Amino acid sequence: MIAVHSSGSDCIELRRLHRFFGDTKAVNDVTFSVGRGQVFGYIGPNGAGKTTSMRILATLDLPSYGDAYVDGFSVVNDPELVRKRLGFMPDAFGTYRDVNCSEYLDFFARAYGLVGRHRSQRLQWVLNFTGTEGMANKPIRGLSKGMKQRLCLGRALIHDPAVLILDEPAAGLDPRARIELRQMIRQLADRGKTILISSHILTELAEVCDSVAIIEQGQLLATGSVDQIQAERQNQLELTMRILNRQDDVIEALKGFGESVLMDNAIIDGQFIRFGFGGDMSAQAALVTHLVNSGFEVAEVRAEKKSLEDVFLQVTEGLVQ
Amino acid sequence: MATIDTTAEIASPHSDWLDKLDRWCARTGDRINPILVKETRQSLKSRQFVVTFSMILFAALAWTIAGSLSMMPQIYTTPSAPRMMIGYYAVLALPMLMVVPIAAYRSLEAEIDDGTLELLSITALSPWQIVLGKLGSASLQMLLYFVTLFPCLAYAYSLRGVDLPTTLLIVASLGVAGLLLTVVGLFFAPTARGRSGRVSALLALIFLLVLAEYAMGAMVFGMIFYGNPLSQSELLFYVVASTAVAFSLGHLMLTSTAAQLTPETENRSTAVRLSLLAFTTVCVSTIALAVLVLRSSGLPIYFFGMFVIAGVWTFCGALMVGERSTITPRIRRELPSSFLGRLVLTWLTPGPTTGLVFTIIVLSILTVMQQASLSWISRSGIARGIYSSQLRRFFGQPALLFVAYLISFLVIVRLLMYVIRLRNNPRVELGLAALVVVALMAALIPYSMQLHYNDYQPLTYDPKWQMTNWAFTMASALERRLPPNIISNVVGAAVGLGTIAILAAWKTTRPRRTATPERVLQELEKKPQGLSEQSAS
Fold it and tell me: What is the pTM of this model?
């Protein structure tokens, strides 16, 4: 028997995934995996290759090379089995005219092969979960963007998939709708769903995701939990010091401290100097001692941990294809 | 506190069979194509349906009053049905032959444009279900329009002048034509990409619909005003043949539409090739039956049928040669497993090489049959005198030359597509474009060169220069001015190229079927969710 499915307990797995459009490498050798029940953030600037990878996972596109697996089934060889396990919410709504919310969900339930009482139970559950119960008999065209987004999430959930792929689900939503969406995603993760989510609102991802992957120009730049990536980038911790005297000499003194001081993007603003620092707490203390021994009057030291947004800006270069 | 169970009281006498009926309805509803359910819900609420339905009602009522009044008082004494029937036909034909096919086209096009087709393609629905659902919804609309106008048709019939068989024939023809045109509309929807492509496709569809409206109108006018000129056997032949051809053509177009909606990894070719074979068989049978049943009056069908088959195989042959040569793991699982199976059925599996061999084999068989039938028609006396000689003139040498050139050009197109596909992944339609380019070059280059060397003086056919010029060669064959050895040269070249193509294709029978993994088989055997629970209940 030929084994064509991936092994291991990962629910989503991208293995050396490539997708070329002519000379453009939309996805270039991307490999990562997402464990069962995880919320995984997929971050990257516009044109980075997020949507292309997600479309391949959703069996809407084919890789030029490599493969992707959902629950162990290949998107290339067994797309129909992948589809059973997968709910996909693209960045476009994909709704119909002259159809109301419950008819829309009922249609997709039928399309996924749900029959009888099971279908009506799922429909009711989805309407309750997404908070669209009150809108069930209203035509879709009259819904707000937030409600449409809820309805589309409902559509992706109607067949109770184990894996959810959400492409920019929070785009264009007001703060309340974003918070509600975040809560829904967290609830789904608590129910054991594996969720791959892409977004430009990085602070949102930091709060909801267990792990993230950062992609740019089709290449994976970093992957791991938010804390892990932040820890890996601790050498770019930002240190702000207030020096009361000899501000002109402080740069030379800092450079003399060693490699942990990174003066490439240092900013001097009057008595304040901000620079990158790659050391731990004791290294910070040693630096202060070094400055004081050198005759500087250090009045204030402030270390700032980088946010996911800072990490993203640091990791990516803003390049588009 | 005592309570009264009202439900038990209400349900008691008939609840059992009502419940059974309810469950049966629910089960039946679950089996209906979801697209049909959605489309019907959607279309019955749409403005287009409301407007069309209202217009039909208003136009039918207006014509009933205006037509009847205009024929007063003779309406009581003389047969007045033809005039009324024409009016009702016009009212019914517009929505059935124009509005419904365009609505079906727009419906599928909107699915592609709005991205909902992608959402459907990741559900359990197959492309065939999507296409059939759309067709089913269009048929329902047509049925509604027909039912609306039924009392008017009955009224017209009661006025005398058009017999019942003619009325039924008109209605049946309208129904079949409406369905076929809806299939054409669905076929056009996924062909075009981009804004200009969509506009061109819509214009081409409207042109076809107007043409069909005109042809149907002419036929119905003739039937109503001049009666039915056909004998019973002729009528039977035309009804059976046109239904069979319309059905097989509809099936071919639906299969092609479904293939266009099928992902690249899946086998998109085999179903289309089988449907193409079925359509060709139906056409050949119709032609044979026409000559056998109708004798000399069936010869126009023979002429027309030849052109249709030639056109369809030129078009489809070029598309098959333009296919991708990659056999995906999905397709490998479906390959024939035995040696005999590989030898016979490989030509139905996707790929340009198998497509070329399939086309060559079918064209060769068809040519042998055509040439044999031509000889039989002349010998049996069905075509006599000048008719017989004209038949030979048009379908003897020129038909042979056409097939020979087509096979040769397809082999060249296969080589061109091989080179193009080394670095690109174009659509299969490029095969058709390549065939047009090859045919044009094969005609224009030798003609221009001979013209140049002849100092731009009028040319006579020179086999040394013009052997590849299919247009000049076939025109000379029609005028019977072709040198004797040229046909054997052209046919010989085609036989040579065809044989090389078949021999070179031998390795395509080599790929073996790959086993479907156990876990995949287990998953595929699982019932849909809710089905087991329902059957238990």
Answer: 0.82
